[in-house]
Amino acid sequence: MFRRCGLPLLALVTPLTLAAAPKGKGDGLTQKEIVDVIQSHSDDARACYQEAVDKDSTAEGKVKIRFLIGLKGKVEASEVEQNTFKDKAIGKCLRNKMKAWTFPKPRGGQQISIAYPFEFKKAPPPPPAPPAPEAAPAAPGTPDTPATAPATPPTPPAPESPQSQSDG
């Protein structure tokens, strides 16, 4: 769950699709390498979603971006393949953010085309806090409860007088 500007957000992401499979074993990038970079830029995706929510508080949807990772690991091109949001600006925002992303240099001297879906849903509100337990009334004269009458210390019992016992 993401939190930004006080609004809880949830971004669910499904597995990516490699458009061009690496030519040889060990070529290209691993799925983990790609996902790690995308997840390291989750603040970018949240910022784009926040912009959509600022315009429409009910905004939810999916944006699938196809992008090309160049030989130096930079995103060289991108396009929105799918966008289910009413306001299509989130796709443009994601594409603009991705221009600054840097992936590891692909092995084997080839560019890699990736299709990656970003799915955004508002997180459910947190459950309400349990009600506070009712406090027992404090004794009169304690700091939390004002005394209705001046508190007087209890009177100590009178000492018992020794009784004389007669044996007689």
Q: Can you tell me about this structure?
A:
It is built from three helices and six strands; from the N terminus they run E-E-E-H-H-E-E-H-E. It is of the alpha+beta class. Strands 1, 2, 3, 4, 5 and 6 form a six-stranded antiparallel β-sheet that branches. The model is unreliable at 1-23 (pLDDT under 50). The protein is elongated, with a radius of gyration of 35 Å. The N and C termini lie far apart (94 Å). The chain has a single domain (2-122), classed as 2-Layer Sandwich (Fusion Protein Consisting Of Minor Coat Protein, Glycine Rich Linker, Tola, And A His Tag, Chain: A, Domain 2), CATH 3.30.1150. It is 20% helix and 24% strand. A hairpin with a 2-residue loop joins strand 1 (2-4) and strand 2 (7-13).
Q: How far do the termini sit from each other?
A: 94 Å
Order of helices and strands: EEEHHEEHE
Poorly predicted runs are 1-23
Predict the CATH topology.
Fusion Protein Consisting Of Minor Coat Protein, Glycine Rich Linker, Tola, And A His Tag, Chain: A, Domain 2
Estimated helix fraction:
10-25%
Q: CATH first level: which class?
A: Alpha Beta
Note the total helix count. Answer: 3
| DSSP strand count | 6
Judging by the overall fold, what is the CATH architecture?
Answer: 2-Layer Sandwich
| Percent of residues in beta strands | 15-25%
Taken from the alpha-carbon principal axes, the silhouette is: elongated
Query: How many whole angstroms does the radius of gyration measure?
Result: 35 Å
